[in-house]
Amino acid sequence: MDISKSQLTISHLKMICQLAESETVKEAAQALFISQPALTNRIREAEKRLNSQLFYRRGRRIYMSNAGKRLLVSAKKILQELARVEHDISRLTHGVEQVLRISMPHYANFSWLPDVLEGFSLSYPQIELEITSQSPVKPLQALHNHDVDVAIISSAKAELEIDAEQYVAKVITQDELVACLSKQHHKSNQAFLMPEDFADQTYVTNSTEAETEREYELFFKPAGVIPPKVLQVGFNDAILALVKANVGVSIFSQRQLTRYLPDASLTTCRLGEAGLPVFWHVVYRNHEHIIAPAEKLFSLLSQHYN
Fold this sequence. Notes:
Layout: H1 10-21, H2 25-32, H3 36-50, E1 55-58, E2 61-64, H4 66-92, E3 98-103, H5 113-123, E4 127-132, H6 139-144, E5 150-155, E6 167-182, E7 192-193, E8 202-205, H7 215-223, E9 229-232, H8 236-244, E10 250-253, E11 266-271, E12 276-285, H9 288-305
Parallel strand pairs: 3-4, 3-5, 7-11, 8-9
Antiparallel strand pairs: 1-2, 5-12, 6-10, 6-11, 6-12
Helix pairs in contact: 1-2, 1-4, 2-3, 5-9
């Protein structure tokens, strides 16, 4: 594919993204700080260059055609990558030679951050670590897309099934998913909880999306049980405040609860009689610029947890 033959400019890509978020051309024009006629001309110009209709109108509202929707997908990716490149280049002018992007799920334990960041900077002062939790549902896809360089993920498997030519995966430590309850909860003295124990409970969580190899996939789904009421709360502290007040129950990893368990109003129960172990992995792209710093990161994480 000859990129020199591309027909659109950055202005066209910004236009398509803004129009996707706006109900009218007038609204989009105001957001782009241009006049409505100028935006209308820009739309016509893009459609002429692509020889395809990108939008259609119904009254005052505008809607994307299938061609417009396809362009929108790529426009978002291109503009996100451009913003990231500009951000990285600004760092380079301040002595940062490389940015190592690390994806972590929002439910991870972040207690390692201070020690690991300090240890990493001593070995690689020219590399900056960037932590993101934007791709917890499909972290391996984020690696494949080069959105991140390293993914820290949990799995019920001690060994991940990955393409060994493209990726390296190493186990950091073993953990366990546990139920978290108020000490006042009528089931808090049970040695373990089965999925059926949640059938009459309010379940408090920070995500209603079924995440790979977490409680829904490993615990609820095999038993065909779903808690009748789910409260989605965005922060772990808020979840635990509701659990302590006996509003509902939740599920965390044991390590995630380490700093909370001294609280006398909270307790945990195993999930199933045998428990529900999970393993934390570091997965990184098998690339010459990533291998050495990723291995250092793995070493520091292993020291912290073991």
